[in-house]
C-alpha cells in the first residue's frame, strides 16, 4: 500500500458515520485571551457611584501579562470596588474594562469572567471545612473541568498530578489528607489560593490576602505570589507594607476612586501626596 492510500483510508475513516465531529480537535474559544500587546488588564476612566457617592472616579490602570501589582490606599479608596468591577460583581457607570485586547469585561457575567480566566480570592476563605485538603482541590477542579473529565476518563492521572503540583506550590503536600477545617488560618488561605489555581486562571485578584496571618505565614505567602508571577498575573490589595515590599512589584496608590501615584514602593513612599493621604496616618 502506498503512503497516499494509507492517508486516504485514514481520511475516509475520519468521515465514517458517528465520527463527523472528530476532525475538529482544536475547539474555537470565542473571545480567547489576546495578549498581543502584553497587557492583560486594561481599565480606562472607570466610574462607579453609590447613591451619588463616587467610589471609583475615572480610574485608569493597565496590568502587564505576568505582572505582580500591588494596590494600596486608605480605607474607602475604592480598592475592593475596583475588583468588583473587574469580576463583574459591580457594573461601572462608565469606562472601559478589557481582559487582554478583546474581552470586554463590562459585557460579561460573573461566571463568564471567571471562566475567561480571572480568579478572585476574597478575604474570608470559602473552603469545604468537612473535606480533606486534597478533596477541596479536587472539587475546585471538578466544577471547572466536568465536561473534559466525563469525555476522557484517562485524564484522572493527569488531574492527580495537577493536584499534587498545586499542593506543593501552596506548601500543603504533607496536609493532603487533613480535614481542611482543622488547618491554621494561613493554611486555609493557601488552600483557597490552591483552589483558584486548579481552575488555571491567567489573572488572580487577591484582596488583603495576609490579613490575620502570622509573620511567617505572611513571608511564605509573599514567596508564593512571587513564584506565581510570570506564569500568572496578580493584582494584590494590601495594607501590610512589609508584605508589599517583599512582593517587590510596581505599586499603585488609590485615593478617592482614582490613581494618586504609581511606581516602585520606594518612590511612592516618598511622594508627599501619598504620605499625606495614606502612609503618614
Ligand atoms: N455596595 C455599596 N453600596 C454603597 N456604598 C459602597 C458599596 N460598596 C462600597 N461602597 C463605598 O464605596 C467606597 C469604596 O469602598 P471600597 O470597599 O472599594 O474601599 P476599599 O479601598 O476597599 O477600602 P478598605 O481598605 O477599607 O477595604 C466606600 O466609601 C464604601 O463605603
Ligand atoms: Mg477593601
Give the gist of this structure.
The protein is built from 10 helices and 10 strands. It is of the alpha/beta class and 281 residues long. The chain has a domain at 125-200.
Word description of this protein:
By secondary structure, the protein is an alpha/beta fold. It is 39% helix and 22% strand. The strands form 2 sheets. A 6-stranded mixed beta sheet has the order 6-7-8-3-9-10, sandwiched between helices. It is globular. The protein starts with a helix and ends with a helix. Magnesium ion binds next to helix 2.
- Rg calc: 22 Å
Main sheet overview: 6 strands, mixed
Query: What is the strand content?
Result: 15-25%
Portion in helices: 25-40%
Bound molecules: adenosine-5'-triphosphate, magnesium ion
Order of strands in the sheet with most strands: 6-7-8-3-9-10
| Mean pLDDT value | 86
Number of helical stretches of at least 4 residues: 10
Poorly predicted residue ranges: 1-29
Got a strand count? 10
Overall geometric form: globular
Sequence of secondary-structure elements: HEEEHEEHEHHHEHEHEEHH
Question: Class by helix and strand content?
Answer: alpha/beta
